[in-house]
Amino acid sequence: MWRVPLHSVLHPIVQASSGQVIGHEALLRGPTGSAWESPAQLFAEADRQGDRVSLEQAARRLAVSRLPDLPSHQSLFVNIDPVVAPAVPPIPAPPDRVVLEIAETRPIGDDQALRSQIDAWRSQGHRIAVDDYGAGYMGVKTLLALEPDIVKIDQAVIRGLDHHPARRAAVEAIMHVTQAIGPILVIAEGVETPEEFWALQDCGVDYMQGYLFGKPQESPIRDVVSVLPTRMRPDPSTSREHRN
Length: 244
What we know:
about 240 residues; alpha/beta; about 30% helix; globular; disordered C terminus
């Protein structure tokens, strides 16, 4: 199954205030248009066959192979499955340019072996990111246990943020906690609309990832200045004072 042709595409992570791309997340893909194009399908089949480690190795190898494609000032974000992390060989790349993203598919705050592995990665020079924060098991306990360099807020928290007060409050709480523990760089995932972009800026989130800035693609990009949304200034001719 995963012995079919696989490749890795790149999804930009941007600084909203400058429009600069600070890095790309490498995402696994199967053959375009096939049943295996989706990474979810790939990993589900790997789990069914009991060979997730093999696919994880291939995904990590393909992700790291994209590092030479990035400008020297950009980082490569690589997903790490904490369940099989100890069974996968080390990252063969300059550690200061590779951010390891860890999604908590099961509680890991009390997993001493994994915490030791994360400490080893950090001592090598890697930065550690917790992925999909706000979904699954990921919570404050995980932040205290792992002390990550980066937190990526799950898209489920971001969706409709501009008209959903509870989600906005959740983002503000995450910003407060991460800055109290950290400083920790916070990235909002799944940003799709200008309204979400502006609401995130109002919450103090300056780093974002999502289709608003572009879909995952083969080639890296340097900046997204041309696609950044801007707030429209009110037309004075339509103001209440003018109409009166």
